[in-house]
Amino acid sequence: MEKNYVCPPPSKGNLLTILSIDGGGVKGIIPATFLAFLESKLQELDGSDVHIANYFDVIAGTSTGGLITAMLTAPSLKSSKEPCYKAKDILPFYLKHCPRIFPHRTGLFGWLFKVLDIIKMIIGPKYDGRYLRKIICDLLGDTSMKEALTNVVIPTFDVKCLKPTIFSTFKARSNTLMDARLADVCIGTSAAPTFLPAHYFETVDHRTGASHSFNIIDGGIAANNPTLVAMGEIAEQIRLKSKEFPETKPLDYHRYLVITLGTGLPEQDIKFDAWCVSNWGIFGWLGREDKVPLLNMFLHASSDMTDAYVANLFKAIGSSDQLLRVQDHGIPIEAMSPDLSTEENLGRLVEIGEKLLHKPLSKDDHMNNYIEPVPKDNETITYADLFTKFAKVLSDERKLRLQNMGLDAGHSTQEA
Q1: Phi, psi dihedral angles at 157 (to 5 degrees)
Q2: Is 218 a catalytic residue?
Q3: In the chain, count of helices (H) and strands (E)?
Q4: Do the beta carbons of residue 250 and residue 235 sit within 8 Å?
Q5: At which positions is motif GXGXXG (predicted)?
Q6: Is the pLDDT of residue 347 over 90?
Q7: Which of 77, 162, 172, 260 is deepest in the core (most CB within 10 A)?
Q8: Which of 20, 46, 57, 63 is catalytic?
Q9: Active-site annotation holds for 63
Q10: Cα–Cα distance between 265 and 306 in angstroms, integer?
Q11: 3-class SS at 325?
């Protein structure tokens, strides 16, 4: 199959560019806000026909981040070189469909529905997932992993063999049995335990007749923040001497430029303490005002460990200015639920994303998200400023690659 990518190959430039998006259910609204802003800045520099996929060698996403990844990279029905969704259209998608993916019933008997939801979560998933499956299948159709507009990486967890299964365009190109439908992968990586049913599907190699079955759930079980997974996939391609990547050492991380987007962490003062959790039984760990504390703790710990490891790595090699982590550490507890799709909460998540984007960053913000340099006294820096800076770096890198290919930035993305 002809390579369908719209991002010029990294072998023609100086950097290896990665975009990573965490899991978080309806909280995908927060990174969707950032992506719309980043794409607008790229379009200011390079024209209205460019999109996120034109600038990243790998886009990785887990759970809701996996769905966003697919929306940014699946080719449109109108043009095989344009994504099915622009970044600015992802937020309206969430606002329109989340209330039906996660129906939230209120009113006079709202308390009764809450009781029924608890009972449902004891004997099975809270939601049947039918609407989500329909929306994803309608959106992505039969698009396969290797048909994405740029390399994608989506973690899942296979419950039958009890190990992570990482889907990527790299694996899809070398192994037909890993070239699954993007729709199947997105349904699987979104199947959060207690909320949505696991997803079963098969892939078939029609040349040999071989087949492979998958029994997958939420990729957050393995990597809620897939940044390291994406970096590892690139390192493996370099080790294999892929023509797409520059001839360099697999661990030559000073060439990596990484933007990693979180979906928010709770306010510090609402976390539970040892005295509280010491008295919890199974129902306490699985059902509190925090919805599912045990699951949330797993997901948050996974993301935080990845944050710390990646930040320390970039700092050790003197490339901290090539890493941007965006994570709100002050999400109100009432907005933390991954399935709270009321109009009030969805609006609150939009507001959280917009406020974080334009809020002056304090020294605490820089410390929490490992952002360097720390602002000086009386200096105002916002995430909008940082996205604007990274957009310029991405634009310059793309122009360099096009120049080295004998093209110029005025050419269409199709020629790239």
Answers
A1: -130, 125
A2: yes
A3: 15, 8
A4: yes
A5: 23-28
A6: yes
A7: 260
A8: 63
A9: yes
A10: 14
A11: strand
Q: Which two tokens stand for residue 38?
A: 């980043």
Options 46, 218, 328, 365, the catalytic residue: 218
Q: CA 387, 392, 395 angle in degrees (round to 5)?
A: 120
Largest CA distance in the chain: 67
Polymer length of the chain: 416
Query: Torsion-angle region of residue 118: left (phi > 0), alpha (psi -120 to 50) or beta?
Result: alpha
Lowest mean per-residue pLDDT among 50-59, 350-359, 405-414: 405-414
Tell me how many degrees the CA angle 201-94-299 measures, rounded to the nearest 5.
Answer: 65
**Which of the pair, 234 or 119, is modelled with greater confidence?**
234
Structure-block tokens of residue 371: 């952002």
- Residue matched to tokens 């979180």: 262
39 vs 17: CA distance, rounded Å: 15
Q: What phi, psi does 91 have (nearest 5°)?
A: -60, -50
Integer Cα distance of 4 and 225 in angstroms: 27
For tokens 């492979």, the residue is 212
Nearest 5 degrees, angle CA 329-CA 335-CA 337?
105
Compute the C-alpha angle 171/177/178, nearest 5°. Answer: 35
Residue 409, φ and ψ in degrees, nearest 5:
-65, -15
